[in-house]
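Bench notes, bay 3.
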Amino acid sequence: MGARGPGRATVLSPRALNRAVLARQLLLERANLPVVPTVERVLGLNAQDPNLPYLALWSRLERFSIGDLTTVIQDGALVRSTMMRATQHLMPVPDFRFVRPVLAPLLRRVQRNAFGRRTAGVDLDELVAEARVLLADGQMLTRPELGRLLARRRPGIDPAALGWTVQYLLPLLHPAPSGTWNVRGPTPFASAEWTGVRREATAEDVRELVRRYLAAFGPATVADAWAWSGVSGLPEVFARLRPELRVYTDESGRELFDLPDRPMPAADLPAPVRFLPEFDATLLAHADRTRVMTDQIRRQVCVGAGVAATVLVDGTVAATWTTHRKKDTAVLTVRPLRPLSTTDNERIEVEAVQLLAFTNPDATTMVEWNR
């Protein structure tokens, strides 16, 4: 795990931190769990594209079918909304209920930075109140539809800016079939009132979010938690929680915090090949991402606002992957980012074939290499 001197915190190596996050994100061994507890355990799944949560769960669960996730989205057990990093995420209702208010200050900052000038002079409280009325009684509208309705009383204001502003300032859901497998197109907005989401977060809500973050991604620094959440005031929150947390350090001397009951897997534990979808939180949940990829590889994976789909080999990013169709054949292309052994190549191909069987069960499949 790491060295420990007299009176000093245990020092965790990058490999120990890697194995910890892989274990907590269910990437060391596929779990035999239902879908909703899995999404709760990993603290939400990125859902910027409807297929991303399905791919994330396929890499984490022993037995998983497309219908397993679609059913709980349709039933409302999981909801899709604007959450961490101001992007679409899928979460169980109880988590959404307390996490969304904690993120509200971040989302207000995003609105101000992105649309503040275009909504100058607009009473934002009044705008949100009107949007609540428009979405009452189960009414659903797309963002453009909502923006146009709100613009009727605000001449000269860009309807798109009004629609986006409401998306950031008002807890909204995007109900099924939006967000289910292969369903794209205009995204419906619906009120989240039925979830019991709170208007304001409590101090305990913020502390609980930190605990849940550590359970899913720890051990981690304060900066790591901020990189994942964007929540302000975290140094004070960690200081308040410090008596109940376990403290480590990394090899650079930075303090790492964790829940006291969380086991640390052995650093030499083997890690299987795993295919991660775009924007997988395993790659984004820390300010220091070297536990899962080198800085050189990160620059090839995280380009602009995009985060590529990746292949983990021995726990760290070794390649990116994409899929496309060639007539009746589903093709998965692997692009290595570092040298790979013959054994690594073989294991990647085995996992790729299984992934294609999941995504394209009726198609002929092929794995290509872009070296």
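Next record in the batch:
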Amino acid sequence: MLQGVTAMDMFDFLTSRQFTLPALFMLGGLALGFVLERVLLVALGRLWSRKDWDGFQTVRKSLRGMITLWFAIGGAYASTRLAALNPAVRLIYHEAFLALIIFTMSLVIARILAGLLDLYISRAEGAFPSTTILGNIVRITVMLTGILVILKILDVPITPILTALGVGGFAMALAFQDTLSNLFSGLHILASKQLRPGDYVELDTGNEGYVVDVTWRNTTIRTLPNNVVVIPNSKLATTVLTNYHRPVKEFSVLVDVGVGYDSDLQRVEEITLEIAREVLREVHGGVSGFEPQVYYKEFSDIRIEFTVVLRAEEYVDQYRLKHEFIKRLHERYGLEEIDIPSLVTTMYLEPSRH
């Protein structure tokens, strides 16, 4: 026990006749905090709704339950003031209540700052992407600061702790090289703006999909079949990747077509462009303002080859555009009697000789 304080001394007021009044203070603080929290949050919601500030939801979530807890702690503190306690015991309680207040306030501040940071970078053009790693860094920094303040208030020497952390940190850096490599690689990926959550990327390994999140250890990619690929940040930082959302999301879609040598190429081009404009205008994912192009490129053995250039809003929209374009173009070519030759292979089998 601390300075001759026993467990019986710590909880003596709970078994004494003076228990009723301190208990009323504790319950009263809890009830008052419960009411004031709801009144305060409603008032702040009305005030900030007039100013159209989206950060209110972040503040509201961070404060939820905390105001009630603070009033309950205040009631508990008042109860220890009223109870006949040993001065040393009362000091222990007061320091414990103060440490709890500082810890919960640090928690609230960490939540608010992380939420506001996420809100800011999701709107600021060219800012860091909204990822878990940045929010975690903010939370850890604020919480460590709060813990250091608590240790200072409790008269716990901080310098030896920081010295020990410095020496221990060097040893941990050697022991956790891979983990630290992933951490700094993740920060490098975010700082270099190679990718952001929501980008569609393709790796040199053949994996492709949407970036879900960049954490302190790995990057998560969701593929089109709705599977998840988890890649360590250290490997992602050194891999060759194609980001189909950079510098813009719009994506050129190339469709190869061929027609017979007896076709009227001018008429073929007009019909093809007509179908292409129709698809871009009517199919979801097409860029309606884009003017499609037709480029004849070569004479093959059986037909004249050309490429049609469409424009999709993003990479995955190309599949829908190709699907509709090929269907409609084939139907229209059939109506216009435009031939699409295909190579036919005939096999002659000699009868077996016995």
